[in-house]
Amino acid sequence: METHSAGPGPLSGVLRDIEDAIPEAARIVGGHLRRTPVEAFHGLDEWAGVSLHVKAENRQRTGSFKVRGALFRLSTVPEGTPVVAASAGNHAQGVAFAAATRNLEARVWMPRNAALPKIEATRAYGAEIELVDGTVDDCIREARTQAESSGAVYVAPFDDPKVIAGQGTLGLELADQMPGDISTVLVPVGGGGLVSGVALALARARPGIRVVGVEAEGAAAMQASLRAGRLVELPSVATIADGLALKRPSQLTFDIARECGIEVVTVDDDAIARAMLALLERAKTVVEPAGAVGVAAAAEGLVGKDTPVGVVLSGGNVDPQVLAKLIDHGLAAAGRHLRLNCILPDRPGSLAGLTSAVAEMDLNILSVEHHRAAPGVPVDHVEVMVHVETRNPRHSVEVVAELERRGFYVETE
Questions:
Q1: Rg, the chain, Cα only
Q2: Does residue 66 carry a catalytic annotation?
Q3: What is the reported pLDDT for 116?
Q4: What is the DSSP letter of 229?
């Protein structure tokens, strides 16, 4: 983990303008928003090993923080002017909802592989959808081109002072809601609009608060840029956190992060999946992968375990089918699903002996696959793959050791 900061520079005037605009944004958009709660859950604290106070922005209108920036940005758009945007889903819904409050025509470019519920929700708010074969970055280029050729207003997902000021309204709420002993706040980072707005709001309302941005390891463009001291575009991104899957921040959000001294840490997909599972089980809270990265970072010990931590759960828009896969991934990452690959003699009773041994250890079998002609398996043997539930990683090790003690040849995935 690195801390990057710089003294006041050319951006200071822009910083002051955005800071000044945040209270105005709160006044303008407040009537359309929910004041989402900051909550603590004993079970979640126990799992993470640190006291967490989570800002449940997954319960916001449209399911994420994005509506804040969209509402404030569109509040300045003249009546009758069409708006365009690009997004994997949350910004799309925010813009569509905000446009509906102003009776503005909205057109949104989205990746063709975006989650279907996000596409349908955006359409339900009244926006016209354009699907693109590519990433969010490709969608942004398409939307910008349309704005330039048609005279529509392009609503940036993060590269806009008014959007950042709108996201900063979340920081104002945090400043009022967090206990006084919280000195660190964890904020998800994709393009950097949320962390920029929150950092600027807290700098004025709660001076001295440490703001730490959290990126997915497979899309850590802000961290790469801060380390390089210049804007860096990643050649590719790969993460389950689709809301953070951007190749680069904007120059504006990069400059704000550098001048405000925002730290950035990263978490891998396994840590994200474990955090999602913990939120579901320990806090009864459904959060999308991008929204869970702060909890993941806290649980990984990336900001220390000694003092309470504030965490922004940035959104809860996740496809139910994807959620089911992520839960399975989280269970495996948490050591609660174990896949055993056993080589057995090809004779009657071998499979029954294995399943009996598993039953005697009080293990629940999820699935069994039997392969008579597996590569690398002797002709007089068979391969049996058994998927079982375990309590934790230590229990998984104990299961393998016990099977080997009973004479079974076992490999694990």
A1: 24
A2: yes
A3: 84
A4: T
- What DSSP letter does each residue of 7-47 carry, written as one string? -S-TTHHHHHHHHHHHHHHHHHHGGGS----EE--HHHHHH
pLDDT of residue 11: 62
pLDDT tens string 52-90: 999 999 999 999 999 999 999 999 999 999 999 999 889
* 314 among known catalytic residues: yes
CA distance 384 to 48: 36
What is the Cα–Cα distance from 110 to 96, expressed in whole angstroms? 12
Domains of the chain in start order, with CATH, are 12-62+161-332 (3.40.50.1100), 66-154 (3.40.50.1100), 335-412 (3.30.70.260)
Give the separation between CA 274 and CA 265, rounded to whole angstroms: 17
Provide the pLDDT for residue 350.
Answer: 84
Q: Is residue 85 a contact partner of residue 129, using CB atoms and an 8 Å limit?
A: no
Per-residue pLDDT tens digits for 104-146? 999 999 989 888 888 999 999 999 999 999 887 789 899 999 9
Q: Where are the beta strands (DSSP E) in 299-364?
A: 309-313, 337-345
Contact 114, 136 (CB under 8 A): no
User: Edge-to-edge strand order for the sheet containing 153-154?
Assistant: 128-132, 106-111, 83-86, 153-154
Mean residue pLDDT across the chain: 90
In this predicted model, what pLDDT tens digit does every residue of 347-375 receive, in sequence order? 888 888 888 888 888 888 888 888 877 77
Q: Alpha carbon 248 to chain centroid distance?
A: 16
Vertex 320: Cα angle to 315 and 326 (nearest 5) = 80
Active-site residue, from 87, 225, 250, 314:
314
In this prediction the pTM is 0.83
Task: Kindly name the residue from 55, 66, 118, 162 that is annotated as catalytic.
Answer: 66
Is the Cβ–Cβ distance between 184 and 213 less than 8 Å?
no
368: phi then psi, degrees, rounded to nearest 5: -135, 130
**CA distance linking residue 264 with residue 376, whole number of Å:** 46
pLDDT tens digits along 26-59: 999 999 999 999 999 999 999 999 999 999 999 9
Question: What's the token pair of residue 369?
Answer: 């696959």
CB 319 within 8 A of CB 115: yes
Length of the chain: 413
How far is 321 from 303, CA to CA, in rounded Å?
Answer: 32
Residue 380: what pLDDT? 81
C-alpha distances in Å from residue 194, one per residue of 16, 288, 342, 347: 17, 16, 49, 62
